[in-house]
Amino acid sequence: MEKIKVLSVNISEKKGTIKIPAGEITLNHEGIQGDAHGGKWHRQVSLLGKESLEKSEPSLGRKLAYGEFAENITTEGFPLYRMKPLGLLISGQIVLEVTQIGKKCHGSNCAIFQETGNCVMPKEGIFCRVLKGGELKAGDILEYRPRTIQVHVVTLSDRASQGIYEDKSGPLLRKLAETFFSEAGRTVSVENTVMPDDAMQLKALLKSLIKKKVDIIFTTGGTGIGPRDITPDVVKKLIDKETPGIMELIRVKYGMQFPNALLSRSIAGVAGQTLLYALPGNPKAVKEYCDEIFKTVEHSFRMLYNIDEH
């Protein structure tokens, strides 16, 4: 958890213009009262750190005023651009959700760029939406709480659940998830469950995890065409939307070289705000599938949480 000091709160009545420091701002469900960037979208409030302002001052040859890069909140104490979407900024009753790091620069078409000759906002500014409103002023403290990504790995295997042989795919999935999110600068928590190939038990566990709003569920095993391979059949009944492209790509990519890979009935989809992937039980296949799946995870989060960066 990082504590960040508010140096200035700034507003403007028109978009693309420098913001003027105010004594206090009122945050509500559409952003900041009286500010041009309010609305029902994900970039209601902008923040920029003093650390970023100071980077620009030598090239401009002058001191920058708070709000000059059109930031609503000027801060000090932590590089804001290191934050990740879905993290929270909290001050008293106020709760802001980080939605975007940086933005597209409009260059010479932007009034701010014309006045300053440079703009650090596209690289180091962040944007939030208001989850809970209230009053904010200079001197207040914002507490940053990064989002911990909750992952649950479920191994389906009659023999592994009986201790006849060691589960290798589940621990591998755990390691792959921890490595991926760590390298992405995110905090992650991974839990494992080993169970028999039983449709009723699997359904009950998945429904419980979806209700708890676990971010990602991986299952491994039971995706073939054998009599005990029931995983995709259970998963398909629980997802709200299937994302077939991921598994289609993987089957074609590896099936061209290893035809047996085409027999996998692996499936991916969304249940509420939970990403759900049913993978084969072979460790080698688990690694191959994850190599493709993890490429889509961050964008999937943005889509699930209505963060449209276009």
Please, could you describe this protein's structure?
The chain has a 7-stranded mixed β-barrel. A hairpin with an 8-residue loop joins β1 (2-11) and β2. α5 runs parallel beside α9 (283-293) and α6 packs parallel to α7 (231-238). The chain has 2 domains: 2-145, M1 Pyruvate Kinase, Domain 3; 148-304, Molybdenum Cofactor Biosythetic Enzyme, Chain A (3-Layer(aba) Sandwich), CATH 3.40.980.10. The relative contact order is 0.13. It has 10 helices and 17 strands. It is elongated, with a radius of gyration of 24 Å. Helices cover 30% and strands 29% of the residues. It is of the alpha+beta class and 310 residues long. It has helices at residues 50-60, 111-116, 121-124, 158-161, 169-183, 199-211, 231-238, 244-255, 283-293, 297-304; strands spanning 2-11, 20-22, 25-28, 31-32, 45-49, 73-76, 88-91, 94-101, 126-132, 134-136, 141-145, 148-156, 187-195, 216-220, 241-242, 267-271, 274-279.
Short description:
The protein has 310 residues and is α+β, with helices and mostly antiparallel strands. The chain has helices spanning 50-60, 111-116, 121-124, 158-161, 169-183, 199-211, 231-238, 244-255, 283-293, 297-304; strands at residues 2-11, 20-22, 25-28, 31-32, 45-49, 73-76, 88-91, 94-101, 126-132, 134-136, 141-145, 148-156, 187-195, 216-220, 241-242, 267-271, 274-279.
